Amino acid sequence: MTTIIRPHAETRYAAELEALRRTDTRKRPENWLLSPWAVATYLIGGELSDGTRITPKYIGNPRLMEIAIATLTTDRALLLMGIPGTGKTWVSEHLAAAISGNSKLLVQGTAGTAEEAIRYGWNYASLIASGPSPEALVASPIMNAMENGLVARVEELTRIPADVQDALITILSEKTLPVAELGYEIQAVRGFNVIATANDRDRGVNDLSSALKRRFNTVVLPLPATPEAEVTIVKQRVRDSATELALPQQKDILEEIKRVVTIFRELRDGKTIDNKAKVKTPSGTLSTAEIISVMNSGLALTAHFGDGVLRAEDLAASITGAVVKDPVQDKVVWQDYLETVLRERAGWEDLYRACRELV
């Protein structure tokens, strides 16, 4: 039997979504599978009246999720903003899964994304053989969402060239998509909306026009507010990843997660956790997603090439790689942190030695 590496949210959490549909008695917007309250419960977590436990998908300020969901009940689209690694894509996928039962209507933004990815394209064999016709038209994910009253997703909107971005303006403002070649238009069915994600910190970002910005309600997703919240997120996502990657489940990794979270937060904030010393900050964002990646790499290393027990040596290379993005500037920052902070921290000698050997 073939095993899918990463099932879509609506598949992976099908039991939770079904339990919510079964117990949800609140009013649902047209073509929504769940009420706004149930969507929020799916994202934030909770316990249903029948005893079903809903795992939290987003750990942070619940009000942000409520604002995002409320936006999607209106005629305004939703723009999730934040630096890389704040969970924008994760939230976008789960919102679409809970509302429409389909998170696959996705446009992935890149520098090479063409207008056809947002509007529609053509089957050129059919086009040449018989000219423009409904049969030759290739619907985009957004067109499909409009026709069926579903939620479409646009990832990395600011990666898309500005002139292509603006193809969304008519769709979002008029809720219609003209097909000039065939002399008709696609009008959006109730339930249609768009969730876009964007960040303005990476290179290669194309600013949104003022006209397009006005079509979105923007919700900024911050990094976790406290070390405890970040540890909780990492622990949950690492556990899930270990299951997906068929890695042995380890019981005693919480302390290692806390150490990596501490390092990343101190370098990100420019000061130690106890506020007693300032530290230099590297060029990268050092997001929660990168902490999860470091932990997953360490678990894979010890599972396949170690003794099965996660140690400092298994994490050192991934930590160093995450911090040192610029081989000149970041290397100096990392060496300074190792000598002034890590070296002096009681109980961290193993992690200091393992990292020091790599720089």
User: Major beta sheet, specifics?
Assistant: 5 strands, parallel
> What portion of residues belong to β-strands?
5-15%
Kindly report the spatial arrangement of strands forming the biggest sheet: 4-7-10-3-11
Which fold name fills CATH's third level, the topology of the largest domain?
Rossmann fold
Radius of gyration: 23 Å
CATH class of the largest domain: Alpha Beta
Task: Provide keyphrases for this structure.
five-stranded parallel β-sheet; Rossmann fold; 2 domains; 11 strands; globular; alpha/beta; 16 helices; 45% helix; 359 residues; two-stranded antiparallel ribbon
Question: Could you please describe the fold and organization of this structure?
Answer:
With 359 residues, the chain is an alpha/beta fold. The protein has 2 domains: 9-220, Rossmann fold (3-Layer(aba) Sandwich), CATH 3.40.50; 227-356. It has 16 helices and 11 strands. It has a 5-stranded parallel β-sheet with strand order 4-7-10-3-11. Strands 1-2 form a two-stranded antiparallel ribbon. It has a two-stranded antiparallel ribbon with strand order 5-6. Helix 11 crosses helix 12, helix 11 (227-244) crosses helix 13 (288-305) and helix 15 (329-342) runs antiparallel to helix 16 (349-356). It starts with 8 loop residues before the first helix and ends with a helix. The relative contact order is 0.10. The model has no long low-confidence stretch (mean pLDDT 93).
Outline of the structure:
The chain is α/β, with parallel strands linked by helices and 359 residues long. The protein has helices spanning 9-12, 14-23, 36-44, 62-72, 88-100, 124-130, 141-148, 162-165, 168-174, 210-213, 227-244, 254-269, 288-305, 312-323, 329-342, 349-356; strands at residues 46-47, 53-54, 77-81, 106-108, 120-122, 137-139, 151-155, 176-179, 184-187, 193-198, 216-220.
